[in-house]
Design brief:
six-stranded mixed beta barrel; 3 domains; 779 residues; globular; single chain; molybdenum ion binding; 35% helix; alpha/beta; Dimethylsulfoxide Reductase, domain 2; Barwin-like endoglucanases; Rossmann fold; binds ligand MGD; molybdopterin cofactor binding; binds molybdenum atom
Length: 779
């Protein structure tokens, strides 16, 4: 097999020789999912740990699965409350392999730069703090105290606190996140970019002016009551597999599911629930038949066609309402609880069907079929994820989805409401804890009242702005609480250049990744405990808390012996850094708070609304944060009403000869962590450099299945290139293309962002496609 070619240390090497395309799966889940779980678990973490994990994952007294933010049932939990991909995420952390000092002695940073993302993650858990000196070729061990002193020195020597960037990924617990933002603000800046900036930021911007809240307004139990569930730009079979259980149960009651997605994702089509194996009465359902059909209607919108689709959907409903006034819209709700209805109606009337059809890529019949389901449903839930949030018009699209819900009064009604499905297991909680570059003044006021210092008021850098700041010399120190900043952000080579210009880059992490390999002058790797591990502090074993996608706070307690005695918990790392940096200027006694996380929770209770009697309540079980729109149809907008926000049609433009590229996750990855090289649901094996194209486009361009092509993105007259992707014919609308994240991130221009939220447009990138100079050997 040919040696993989390294593009640059910032990108995973090109490996295309063995990639194959076969038939996509017809059913999600099934016995195969169980086989994957068992195989993956045993291979990486051994029998003992596999069984222990199996026992504790998502159980009331166990740890919160780190894979996604889908909630656990409020009542009784299944004995196996997890999914294939959750199990892989856990196993990825519980692996028996170690990346220790000896490993770093054997592998220079240059060597690591030639390794694939998959290989880096497979090497095992980080075990001790490591330092890369200026000009050094290898990371070498460093003590924790020395590491904190070094970081503190660098931070204190900056011209201003705003020259440092403090990134957060969404696995960070509430306790760690609260301390982290407190430290950063006491240090003097709001430079707190987080993964949310690349994820649901468009949601967080779209919702507040309409609903007075930046979060979804449904509970899991609402899925038991809904008449229709719209799943928009989301692939739950891979990314939120436990959602399929909720959909399966909803379907059994006769609820209808509409999937809005350019791709026919198997997870929204058919599902065999592996958990049925544990219920004797459900066994026949598992073994007989081809699984539960999930989707009643699949709408293959063109990439970025969602805004037009929702405009068409509402226009169709408006025409029906015109014919039979008072029968389609919830006039009572609109009158009492909303404002701006007339503006929306005017916008719908002004939108032309020709434009709606052209922009959405759907037929009038398809839109009519969706409207029919909507008009027959008294309770509608709309779920959306990255297929919606990562476009230039994402905020407008989300607002159009909420307009649709408001028309029918589908908010604050059991079985109905907006349901942005969050990604990382605590990304929503991190924001609640104040991880935000643009904090509300009320939040800062409460911080000041509780801790007696004046927090900075000037907004900080979000992710995109942080990358620009590192590149143009406004930021010199980059410290990350988890994540893989380099590979997760857009414009990979530009981000790499920014990191290289920093004086210092440091990462609190559990596993090795590419961000540890493309560094500033000095670099640190600070290994931390994972969710699965026992967190013992001065007063005894600790637990942490997280918030799921539906605003439920639950506790998480690790059960396994830490993989190395030298790991610190995330709160302990923040405390060590804060104490060294702030010294006597500290707003609290860091050590005392880390000794007993109850003290951190007391501080959270004092600062963050919704946490009264936090320590008591969390010991009794889980609890919901208040959600006024859901609980009492109360909207914290200036008028106290929900606000319609009409969004005029707009679409990502492509020139003749161009395609619109979306970047997606395979079934075998968690963001930048690559679990394996297959995407069996889509029929892709042993490789990730694949571009999905419509067969007619492939023929029209004179290309062939399996051929290698180079992708070039176009933005404001500049091009960016990613070489050697294998052509894979797929059921995707014409002029649309899909490739995997993070391989395709190099194509996403730093300046191409969603209006209002600054989220990189990872789901709509205009590209051209040309045959590669190098082709794979014919077999
Ligand atoms: N196993 C696993 N679980 C995960 C993750 C993971 O990587 N692996 N990541 C976690 C995180 S952080 C997040 S944010 C979520 C992500 O969860 P998803 O949003 O489901 O992830 P993506 O793969 O980005 O998928 C987006 C979906 O949108 C579709 N899509 C693409 N472009 C468009 C468009 O223009 N319009 C519409 N309507 N659809 C479009 C794609 O076909 C795909 O089905 O999952 C979380 N859970
Ligand atoms: N093109 C494109 N780009 C995208 C996306 C896309 O759809 N397309 N999606 C975007 C989205 S939705 C998101 S959320 C971001 C994700 O961006 P990030 O959150 O930055 O990336 P992850 O890959 O989730 O981070 C993985 C790393 O986190 C570390 N880690 C794991 N567990 C822990 C822990 O418990 N503690 C600590 N301290 N570290 C830990 C490990 O070292 C691991 O290597 O990527 C974004 N980028
Ligand atoms: Mo995400």
């Amino acid at each position: 097999m040919p040696v993989p070619r390294s593009v640059s240390p910032a990108q995973t090497p090109i490996e295309v020789a063995g990639t194959q395309q076969k038939k996509p799966y017809q059913v999600a889940g099934g016995l195969r999912a169980l086989r994957e779980v068992a195989g993956y678990g045993l291979r990486h973490s051994g029998l003992g740990n596999t069984l222990k994990t199996f026992h504790a994952i998502n159980q009331t007294n166990g740890f919160d699965c780190q894979s996604c933010a889908w909630p656990n049932p409020d009542g009784e939990r299944s004995f196996a409350e997890f999914c294939e991909n959750g199990f892989k995420a856990v196993t990825y952390e519980v692996t028996k392999k170690r990346v220790d000092a000896e490993f770093f002695q054997q592998h220079s940073v240059a060597d690591l730069g030639t390794r694939s993302d998959y290989w880096l993650g497979e090497q095992g858990r980080l075990t001790e703090p490591m330092l890369l000196r200026p000009g050094g070729t290898h990371y070498e061990p460093i003590g924790w105290d020395e590491a904190f002193q070094l970081l503190a020195r660098e931070l204190r020597s900056l011209g201003s606190p705003h020259e440092a960037v403090f990134y957060t990924s969404g696995r960070t617990s509430n306790e760690a996140a609260f301390l982290w933002q407190l430290f950063v603000r006491a240090f003097g800046t709001n430079n707190l970019p987080d993964c949310s900036n690349m994820c649901h930021e468009s949601t967080s911007v779209a919702l507040p002016p309409m609903l007075g809240i930046g979060k979804g307004c449904v509970r899991l139990s609402d899925f038991e009551k809904a008449d229709a569930i719209f799943i928009i730009g989301q692939n739950p079979g891979t990314n939120h597999p436990r959602m399929l259980t909720a959909l399966q149960q909803a379907k059994a009651r006769g609820c209808r599911v509409v999937s809005v997605n350019p791709l026919p994702e198997v997870g929204t089509e058919r599902f065999k629930n592996p958990q049925d194996l544990l219920h004797p009465t459900r066994l026949p359902r598992f073994f007989l038949g081809g699984g539960t059909p999930l989707s009643d209607l699949w709408l293959p919108v063109m990439i970025n066609g969602d805004l037009a689709f929702f405009t068409g959907l509402m226009k169709e409903m408006l025409e029906a309402e015109d014919r039979r006034p008072g029968t389609v819209f919830d006039r009572g709700f609109i009158r009492h609880h909303t404002e701006g209805f007339e503006a929306l109606v005017a916008q719908l009337r002004a939108s032309a069907w020709n434009d709606i059809i052209a922009d959405s890529g759907l037929t009038r019949e398809q839109i009519r079929a969706a409207a029919q389901i909507a008009m027959e449903s008294h309770r509608i839930i709309a779920c959306w994820c990255m297929g919606v949030t990562q476009h230039h018009n994402a905020v407008a699209t989300i607002q159009q989805i909420v307009n649709f819900l408001l028309l029918g009064g589908h908010i604050g009604r059991p079985g109905a409401g907006p349901c942005p499905v969050r990604g990382h297991s605590n990304v929503q909680g991190d924001r609640t804890m104040g991880i935000w570059e643009n904090p509300r003044p009320e939040f800062l006021d409460r911080l000041r009242a509780e801790f007696g210092f004046e927090p900075p008021r000037q907004p900080g850098f979000d992710t995109v702005e942080a990358i620009r700041a590192m590149n143009d010399g406004r930021a010199h120190v980059f410290i990350a609480m988890g994540g893989n900043f380099l590979s997760a952000t857009s414009d990979t080579e530009f981000t790499a250049a920014g990191l290289r210009r920093c004086r210092l880059t440091a990462h609190v992490a559990t596993k090795l990744n590419r961000s540890h390999v493309v560094t500033g002058g000095t670099a640190l790797i600070l290994p931390c405990l994972g969710r699965t591990e026992i967190d013992r502090q001065a007063t005894g074993e600790q637990f942490v808390t997280v918030e799921d996608s539906m605003g439920v706070i639950s506790s998480s307690r690790g059960h396994l012996t830490p993989c190395s005695a030298q790991l610190l918990s995330e709160p302990a790392i923040v405390a060590g850094l804060a104490k060294a940096t702030l010294g006597p200027k500290s707003p609290l006694d860091w050590e005392a708070h880390v000794a007993n996380y109850d003290r951190i929770r007391d501080r959270i209770e004092a600062v963050v609304p919704g946490f009264p009697a936090f320590n008591d309540r969390i010991r009794e079980g889980t609890f919901y944060l208040p959600n006024p729109p859901r609980d009492e149809r109360r909207f914290a907008t200036p008028s106290g009403k929900a606000v319609f926000r009409p969004a005029p049609l707009s679409r990502a433009a492509i020139e003749p000869g161009q395609y619109l590229l979306t970047t997606i996750r395979s079934h075998d990855q968690f963001n930048t962590s690559i679990y394996g090289l297959d995407d069996r649901y889509r029929g892709i094996y042993n490789g990730r450099r694949v571009v999905f194209l419509n067969p007619e486009d492939i023929a029209a361009a004179g290309l062939m299945q399996g051929q290698l092509v180079d992708l070039t993105s176009h933005f404001n007259g500049r091009t960016r290139r990613a070489a050697q992707f294998m052509v894979a014919p797929y059921a995707i609308p014409r002029r649309c293309a899909a490739a995997y994240f993070p391989e395709a991130n190099v194509l996403v221009p730093i300046d191409s962002v969603a209006e209002g939220s600054n989220c990189p447009t990872s789901k709509s990138i205009p590209i051209t496609i040309a045959p590669s100079a190098e082709q794979r050997p014919q077999v």
